[in-house]
Specification:
Blueprint (H helix, E strand, L loop, with lengths): L1 H61 L2 H4 L32 H13 L8
Helix pairs in contact: 1-3
Amino acid sequence: MAVADNTRMKSLEAEVKKLYQMLEAASEENKVERARNSEATSIKFNAIQSSLNQLLQERSILRSPTHTLTHGSNSGGDFQPRCGLTRRVNFDLAKFDRTDALGWIFSMDQYFDFFRVPKDE
């Protein structure tokens, strides 16, 4: 009986060791995936920040006195933009519900793609 118990214990130890190695491998893969997701998130945040900065710059340019004077009129108070960009666009942005941060970031990026100016390549 002792020989059978010893053999059974060795096979259980081998199985536990095998499971532990599988767990370590999965943990390492998870670390790599988290690092990749973190880098992708950082890139998206930087793109969003860049888009917001660009929008703020465009807004300040549009609000500058040289862009808000009327054509040929100094009647005071009745200012109209010269550049023709008078229409405002309303967006219904999804609120972050604290469940899927990466998905929310990607959905916000789709909204800001509208404002992105293509780079000369």
